[in-house]
Design brief:
With 380 residues, the protein is α/β, with parallel strands linked by helices. The protein has helices at residues 84-91, 93-98, 105-113, 115-124, 131-145, 158-179, 230-253, 257-263, 274-284, 291-304, 334-348, and strands spanning 8-12, 25-28, 41-45, 57-61, 103-104, 149-153, 181-191, 194-204, 215-222, 311-318, 324-331. Helices cover 37% and strands 19% of the residues. Helix 3 (105-113) crosses helix 4 (115-124), helix 3 (105-113) runs antiparallel to helix 7 and helix 6 packs parallel to helix 10. One of its GO terms (molecular function) is single-stranded DNA 5'-3' DNA exonuclease activity.
Amino acid sequence: MTESPSDSRLLDHHHPHLVPQIPIEIVSDEEMALLFARSLIPSTVRAFPSSVRSLQYSITLLSKRSLWGCSQPGIEDSGWFNTTTQKKKAESLLHRFRNKKGLSASDFAESEWCEQQMRYILLNGNRVISKAMKTGRERHAKLEEEFVTKSKVVVNSDEDKWALRFLKFITGINQLYTEGLTRELPLVGFAEGIWMVGVIDEVQMPATETQRNPLLVDTKTRVKDKLPSEPQRRKGRLQLMFYKYLWDNLEASGFPADQFFDHFSLNPDCDLSEEIREVVRAKSGYPAKTLDDVVKYYRKSWILLPRAHDQLLLRYELQKHYSVIGEDIFAYDSDVFKKQLQVCLEFWLGKREASYTPEEERWKCYSCEFASTCPAAPAN
């Protein structure tokens, strides 16, 4: 993806006056978690204290036990297909590996990086986690802990698991409106005929009377004290565009609950476990007996939310001590994103074979764990 200087500028930590100062607006309301019809009442603008911890829950799944009337976790639907189209769909990578998960922002970005590598990862199982990748995950966990209180919760069914995911979004949005910032915000939506999911690193609420569009932020960690190559920045930009696209689609079209229950083989009337109901009540202030109750609150939250900001922020940090190397602020390009999304879906839906990375970017192969078996990899 190419872009003009007006679309993107890199902000270096050596020139702090170039870094955008994003003020935070604190909005006071009755209880955002109730999500009933009411107006949001803005209050005074103040700086956001880094020491504040939210009531948001970060969930660790401890066990899975099937219950009568509920869906057993981790069960993929099998089915008989009596048409060529259905059979081809069943054989696609999307159906084989993401049918009960949804296509993620990471799936999209990794496919743009190299479709063949993505294919190898899917067919060979989870990829090897490098030291740099592990450090990056640890950094994101620490960033989340600055604003999130974590707790371990036992789940008994797929309904419990999905209820917790939606609850984390609802409490995250509550935090965004009351404190001006939230982190690790999960999204679940339907677009382009498929289910899509993602977890946004950070969402900030601008503090102006005329600007109410949340700013989406993604943080990348670097081993070296320098900005990444253009293909690496392109990958990061596309991942953020995925979040923006999914956010705006949910804001405009809503969440198709019946279609969701049907696709993921969930029972909307299945009683959530007592522990899950207690978590929902304690952390959001409203009663929810079933998954359908929680999904209704998720749907209502999108009625109140505006579109995401057209500007997106990609932050690069040095892994050694988490100092900011630079920030890439760029404009959402709908045409570029949708074109790349269609290319991606052709691969995931089995409409064509996986492509290799362009010859001018074959340097990627030197760090690929599948290079020894890939015919496109350059000879050592």
